[in-house]
Amino acid sequence: xxxxxxxxxxxxxxxxxxxxxxxxxxxxxxxxxxxxxxxxxxxxxxxxxxxxxxxxxxxxxxxxxxxxxxxxxxxxxxxxxxxxxxxxxxxxxxxxxxxxxxxxxxxxxxxxxxxxxxxxxxxxxxxxxxxxxxxxxxxxxxxxxxxxxxxxxxxxxxxxxxxxxxxxxxxxxxxxxxxxxxxxxxxxxxxxxxxxxxxxxxxxxxxxxxxxxxxxxxxxxxxxxxxxxxxxxxxxxxxxxxxxxxxxxxxxxxxxxxxxxxxxxxxxxxxxxxxxxxxxxxxxxxxxxxxxxxxxxxxxxxxxxxxxxxxxxxxxxxxxxxxxxxxxxxxxxxx
Length: 335
Fold this sequence. Notes:
This protein is mainly β and 335 residues long. Helix content is 0%, strand content 50%.
């Protein structure tokens, strides 16, 4: 049985979905957010709507409950509680992706709020003994909670969860970065806020949809395992799915230590890639190390058989290439 520890903040409503604050290295397209019904919150990615970007869902009466919420036959000594959620006041109903949990209103002797029931339907009906309960509704990373008092009739409660989706991908120029080569971390607030914060979502993959409360966030996009990282601010707005494209200025570089231009690469070579100022960017061992580097100037040192071979090179965004380091006339004794 799941348990919930008391907190002053745990039942505060979390607000909702997405618009974009145009940073220079990312752009976004916003569309209606439509979820199939029912949908488990763990079965993302979500589907976008059919409307044009930035359009809203067709409003339904704000307090309207789904038609299938017909009063059930309630056993004696029980009360029916019908619940539903919407994207906000005077906003459309949320049709899927919800998780509902009913907790005892008071903690037990060990200080735990015990979970009584859980449902993943869009608009479930709980049958409970009369009394007080805390009902928690979550939609991705957005959630809200409310104290509900059940007496001797059917109760209906509509919860406001202004939330929507952020779907991410990365590109170099017009070329889409393949899934698995790029990931995203999402932080609350703006990147220009100096406050230390922990990410609320990590290692988000291309095409995944993250549901978030309304507000400002910044994303850190990491392409490869080198130094190609881009930060972008975004804003989350109600009932919208925003497709965010982050543009990296980088290229894939393959290093080779050779005796002659175009020659065979020497195995068991140790590599160190540095900035012109001497900061180490990447270290590797092998005949053909492959790495993603941000656009700019670099210095590479190859070590093989007790000798070192340096070279300077430049990375041009979108130009993937091999960088050869020659052994002839370039060697110096290593430490």
